[in-house]
Design brief:
Elements: H1 7-13, E1 16-20, E2 36-40, E3 45-49, H2 53-56, E4 67-70, E5 76-80, E6 85-92, E7 98-104
Antiparallel strand pairs: 1-2, 1-4, 2-3, 4-5, 5-6, 6-7
Length: about 100
């Protein structure tokens, strides 16, 4: 039974590389429609990432200047900060709830 309604495959299929232009520290956002705006360091252009449900669960960890990075096919994403990196994985717990596991490097 797929309790994620295809969300896991959707998250595997996208990639993102964006430097946040604002801090989300004060707005704990939990929405499938969470949008991240900022500069793509590869193109040096302003970019928008609209499918940010996975990021929304840890939005209070995103500050202005952080790079949000995810490679297509990977089951994790990174929030690159000035002095450390947060690696965020999703996991389904025994109650069937999706939880995020954050590791600091």
């Amino acid at each position: 039974m797929d309790i994620t309604n295809g969300q896991e495959q959707f998250e595997l299929d996208y990639s993102v590389n964006i430097i946040s232009n604002k801090s989300y520290k004060e707005d704990k956002i939990k929405s499938a429609f969470f949008t991240i705006k900022g500069k793509n360091p590869e193109t040096d252009k302003i970019d928008t990432f609209d499918a940010g449900r996975w990021f929304s669960n840890v939005s209070d960890s995103i500050e202005k200047g952080d790079t949000l990075y995810k490679i297509k096919g990977e089951k994790f994403f990174l929030i690159k900060k000035e002095k450390y990196i947060l690696k965020v994985n999703s996991k389904v717990n025994t109650n069937g709830e999706i939880i995020e596991i954050i590791k600091r490097f």
